[in-house]
Specification:
The chain is mainly beta. The chain is 5% helix and 44% strand. The protein is built from 1 helix and 9 strands; from the N terminus they run E-E-E-E-E-H-E-E-E-E. Strands 1-2-3-6-7-8 form a 6-stranded antiparallel β-barrel. Strand 2 and strand 3 form a beta hairpin.
Length: 113
Amino acid sequence: MSTRTIPAAVVGQGATMHYPQDSYGFVIVEVSPSGKTAKVAPLKTVDMTTGHEPAYFNGPFPVWSHSYTEEELVSMRIEDAPLSTIRLTKRGWSKNGTPFSVGGARFHRDYSY
């Protein structure tokens, strides 16, 4: 049986909240001494006002798929937004049952759903 290694949270690193159809980017701003909880700040979603184009279209609907760069983890942080706490469980990182991954921030939104 193989064991799965869950990445540790690191301040300044990206994190992604995963929903069944969509994903939203965050940046890690604080990690507890135990490493079992972290506070994350949301990142702005990408669209044409942020200088990004849709990855493709699903019929007439745009599909956005974007991996945030290290520079964007700083420049696209929503400064006044409240921080969220994510917790490390046996299944990985989550917030109230919603899964998170750490190690990179991604935004994916398909407006056809």
